[in-house]
Structure formats: structure tokens, C-alpha cells
């Protein structure tokens, strides 16, 4: 243990890692915050409609962190590597290192080690933490919105509660229990039943075990299939449905392949009678693994695109890196979808994008280390520029005009 990884890191390695980690953590925080804020706004709207406490949205968002972290890690790591190498390139530190005999491969070594550590972290987060958090997220949603009816209700909102009952009220007092302009739609014994009342009140039953809805001054209309519906007017009426105070136990974890850990997915894939379709389990397993392992090889793609001092080339390289990562991410998602539907095996559709990404990264790295900054992107920019210059030179010059007159 005393001679682990850290003693092998030289001063240069620690310096490069320091340049990488700061922008990586900053960009990772920004991406996560942006994703969570967008989801929190949607959750608040859902919870407000269901009459659930708004603070539950933050508990739900907390359980989404592992899911979003799996997508944010590659972006944050790529931005960190790009920022570190481009800073060294602009500050002439890259040229000084090369002049002193330090190769680009040596400078990339600590980034590869960091990528391997992040791959392991991604497997832990996506493969083990995220399935549990996803289940807890759905359990909270069920407890907050999908069960019974809480002892309060939002105004002017249709609430679908148990047994196909839909309730709305024009006005609700501050306690959430006093209602005005109540409308209830239900289907009972194959008959449509509509109940309306001037006022209503949510209250506990006498045994304090459930919630009941007491209505005043209204009518019950039943469609019994006759020429005219049956109508019953009342001054006081208690709805014949009781609403539980507590949610029933949520289903066990594992209702979806996304709620299974990597070990559980592997076990189910090789079980004699798997709990779900093999194609769904296989797509989830191989998709998670391919996405996590790609972090270890990401520096091979980003480092060559970061080594340039020309402003136009830097922008083009950054765009190329972003496009390559987006294409790879979408290719993995498409591969998972194809495998999930059973059109092709997951070992092909999920690992083919990974192999292409790895081959492109290795090829770009091997062809760019001898002449840092000379990449496929920079050569394409130079080719376009040369073509434009040749076209301008071949353009015939305008003939001078002779002024008329004496």
C-alpha cells in the first residue's frame, strides 16, 4: 500500500492533474446543476398538481444525481482535459516540455490514469448507486402523487385518485380541506356517476383511520342507460369512498432492468428463467459498461485536439471534440434501443460504437504526437484555406477604367 499509485506520480503528472481537475469539477457542477434545475421545475409542477409538499422535489432530485452524473462525467472530463492541455499549449509549457525530452505520451499518462479512475467511479455510480436511487425516486413519486388522496387539494385542478375517481374544486381554502364548487366523476357498477356540490370538506373518519369527503347542497347524476339520467339532490352527503392516510407498500425493486445492479443484470441474463426479456437485460448491461469504459480512453481523443496555438484551429478542434462525443453518446443510445427491441444483439450494437470510438481516438493520438497540433481537423482547416487562396489568385483582376475627357 505504501508504494501505490500516488508515489509514482511525478511533479509534472501532479501538475497536469491539477490543471485538469479544477475545470473538470467546475464544469461537472454546472452540468449537474443545469440538469437538476430543469428536472426540479418539472417535479414541482407535478407535485403541486397532486397536492404533495413541494420540498419533496428536492428529495427526488437528490436521487437523480447518480443518473445524471453518469452522463455528466464524460463531458466534465473532456472539458477538463481540453482546458489543461490547451493552457499548457498557449503558455508555451507544451513546447518547453517537448524540447526537454518529455513526450506527449508521457504527458498523457496521468490523464489516462485519471480516466481509468473515473471509469471505475462511473461503473460504481451507474452500475450500483443509480439502480437503487431510481427505485427510491419512483417510490417517492408513488407515495407523493399516485396513491389515495391527501387531506388537502389544489384549486381548479383535476385530481385522479384511486378506483378511477376524478375530483376537482373551483376554490380551496388555506387549509386545503374546505372546498367550493366541487365536481366528482366516477364509474360505479358500469354506470357513469357525476356528483356536484356547492361546498365540501375533507375530514377524518370517526376512527381517525382514513379521510372522507363530506359534500353539501348538491346532486348526484347517474347514467343508467335510460332516456334520462337518474338525479338525486342532497343537502349533506358523504362520499362512499375512504382515502387511506398512508400509501400502501410500493412494489419490490427490480420491476425494470434499470433498477438492477450490474451483478443482478448478469445473474438474470444467465438465469434459466430470467425475470425479464434477455434482450432488455443485455442492452442495459452492455450499454452501461461501454459508456463507463470509454472514459479511460477519452484523453486519446481530446489531447491531440487540445494542442494548438492558432485561434481558429482551437475553436474548430473544440467543435470537433464536442461533435465526436455527441455522436458517440447518441450511437450508444441508438445501439441500446436496437438491442432492447431485439433487432440485433447488444454485444454488437453497444460495442460497435465503442470500438469505432476507440479506434478513432488511438489513430488520432498516434498521428498527432510527432507533430503536436497537426491533426485531421487542422489539416482540413489548412486545406480549406489553401483552396480559398488558390481560388482568389486565379480570379482575373478587374481591368482599369480609363477616364473619359481631354
From TrEMBL:
Taxonomically, which superkingdom?
A: Bacteria
**What PANTHER family does the record tag this protein with?**
SLR0882 PROTEIN-RELATED, YJGP_YJGQ FAMILY PERMEASE
Please name the taxonomic classification of the source. Answer: Bacteria, Pseudomonadati, Pseudomonadota, Alphaproteobacteria, Hyphomicrobiales
Name of the protein described by the UniProt record: LptF/LptG family permease
What keywords were assigned to this record?
Answer: Cell membrane, Membrane, Transmembrane, Transmembrane helix
Q: Which residues cross the membrane?
A: 15-36, 43-62, 111-132, 315-332, 344-365
Q: Which Pfam families match?
A: LptF_LptG (PF03739)
Coiled coil stretches, renumbered: none
Q: How does it sit in the membrane?
A: Multi-pass membrane protein
Any idea where this protein resides?
A: Cell membrane
Amino acid at each position: 500500500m505504501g508504494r501505490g499509485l500516488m508515489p509514482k506520480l511525478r511533479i509534472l503528472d501532479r501538475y497536469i492533474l491539477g490543471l485538469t481537475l479544477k475545470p473538470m469539477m467546475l464544469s461537472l457542477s454546472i452540468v449537474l446543476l443545469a440538469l437538476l434545475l430543469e428536472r426540479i421545475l418539472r417535479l414541482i409542477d407535478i407535485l403541486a398538481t397532486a397536492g404533495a409538499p413541494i420540498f419533496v422535489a428536492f428529495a427526488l432530485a437528490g436521487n437523480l444525481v447518480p443518473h445524471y452524473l453518469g452522463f455528466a462525467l464524460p463531458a466534465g472530463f473532456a472539458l477538463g482535459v481540453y482546458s489543461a492541455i490547451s493552457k499548457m499549449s498557449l503558455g508555451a509549457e507544451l513546447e518547453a516540455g517537448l524540447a526537454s525530452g518529455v513526450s506527449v505520451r508521457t504527458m498523457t499518462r496521468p490523464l489516462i490514469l485519471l480516466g481509468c479512475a473515473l471509469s471505475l467511479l462511473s461503473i460504481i455510480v451507474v452500475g450500483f448507486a443509480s439502480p437503487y436511487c431510481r427505485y427510491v425516486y419512483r417510490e417517492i413519486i408513488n407515495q407523493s402523487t399516485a396513491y389515495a388522496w391527501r387531506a388537502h387539494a389544489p384549486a381548479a385542478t383535476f385530481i385522479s385518485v384511486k378506483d378511477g375517481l376524478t375530483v376537482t374544486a373551483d376554490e380551496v381554502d388555506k387549509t386545503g380541506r374546505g372546498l367550493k364548487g366541487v365536481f366528482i366523476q366516477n364509474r360505479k357498477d358500469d354506470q357513469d356517476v357525476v356528483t356536484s356540490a356547492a361546498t365540501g370538506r375533507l375530514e377524518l373518519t370517526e376512527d381517525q383511520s382514513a379521510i372522507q369527503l363530506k359534500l353539501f347542497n348538491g346532486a348526484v347524476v347517474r347514467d343508467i342507460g335510460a332516456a334520462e339520467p337518474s338525479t338525486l339532490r342532497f343537502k349533506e352527503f358523504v362520499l362512499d369512498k375512504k382515502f387511506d392516510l398512508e400509501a400502501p407498500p410500493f412494489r419490490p425493486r427490480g420491476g425494470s432492468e434499470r433498477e438492477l445492479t450490474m451483478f443482478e443484470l448478469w445473474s438474470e441474463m444467465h438465469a434459466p428463467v430470467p425475470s425479464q426479456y434477455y434482450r432488455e437485460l443485455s442492452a442495459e448491461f452492455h450499454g452501461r459498461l461501454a459508456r463507463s469504459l470509454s472514459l479511460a480512453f477519452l484523453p486519446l481523443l481530446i489531447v491531440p485536439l487540445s494542442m494548438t496555438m492558432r485561434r481558429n484551429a482551437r475553436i474548430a478542434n473544440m467543435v470537433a471534440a464536442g461533435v465526436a462525443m455527441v455522436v458517440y453518446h447518441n450511437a450508444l443510445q441508438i445501439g441500446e434501443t436496437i438491442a432492447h427491441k431485439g433487432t440485433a444483439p447488444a454485444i454488437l450494437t453497444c460495442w460497435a460504437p465503442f470500438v469505432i470510438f476507440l479506434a478513432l481516438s488511438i489513430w488520432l493520438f498516434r498521428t498527432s504526437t510527432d507533430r503536436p497540433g497537426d491533426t485531421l481537423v487542422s489539416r482540413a482547416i489548412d486545406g480549406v484555406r489553401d483552396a480559398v487562396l488558390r481560388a482568389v489568385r486565379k480570379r482575373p483582376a478587374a481591368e482599369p477604367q480609363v477616364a473619359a475627357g481631354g
